[in-house]
Structures are given as structure tokens and as C-alpha cells.
Amino acid sequence: MIGLFMALALIAAVAAVGARRWRKARWARQQPGTSIYAPVIVSGFDEIDAAIANRVCWCEGTYAESGETSRNIGQRRFRIVRLVCNQCEREQLMYFDVTAVFH
Ligand SMILES: [Zn+2]
Fold first, then answer.
1. Ligand 1 centroid, distance to 50 Cα (angstroms)
2. What is the reported pTM?
3. How far apart are CA 70 and CA 93, in angstroms?
């Protein structure tokens, strides 16, 4: 009987962790600039710095830039910034549409 109770408690705990992880993953995907198909559109490079400064990791840590690269798709220009969380060291790419900067 106690064994059954413990098994149920364990299942509930695992489900709770899974649900939390899923919610966090969904939250992370909904942040602006997480894919090249949903970039943050900027009109100046200073806006990129501001967006990075305002970005918060799901552990509530702040991000530091660890590298960046450029990419063109047709007429559109993108800057892809690699971010690393200062607390949990999670890496994250952030996509910016910088087309307007060059016009
Ligand atoms: Zn973090």
C-alpha cells in the first residue's frame, strides 16, 4: 500500500517536472527573435544591444553575447547573435532582421 502511494507520488513529481519543462520550453520559443522566421526587426545596431540587455533566460539570468554572424536571405539581411546565460550557461541564438539598417 505504501509502495503504491510512493509510486503515485513519484509519477506526480515526474509529471510536474515535465509540465514545468514543457511550459518553459514553450515560453522560450515565444520570445522574440528565437528563429530566423520570427526575427526581431531593428533599424539600428544599438537596438540589438538593447534587445540583448532586456533578454532574460528562463532561469532569470541575463545573457552575454558570445559571438555573432550575418546571413542574407534574398534582399533581407539578418544578424544572428549567440548568447550565453550568465547564470546557467544556457546558449541561445537570437535573430535580428537588420535589413532596414542598410537602407
Ligand atoms: Zn539561464
1. 18
2. 0.76
3. 12
Number of separate domains in the chain: 2
How many whole angstroms from 82 Cα to the centroid of ligand 1? 14
**pLDDT digit string (tens) for 71-87?**
999 999 999 999 999 99
Between the CA of 75 and the centroid of ligand 1 the distance, in Å, is: 34
Q: Please, are residues 59 and 90 in contact by the beta-carbon 8 Å criterion?
A: yes
Alpha helices in the chain (DSSP H): 2-30, 45-54
Q: Which residues contact 67 (CB under 8 A, 6 or more apart)?
A: 81, 82
Residues 37 and 26 in one domain: no
Whether 87 and 67 share a structural domain: yes
93 Cα–ligand 1 center, Å: 13
Verify that 85 and 47 share a domain, yes or no: yes
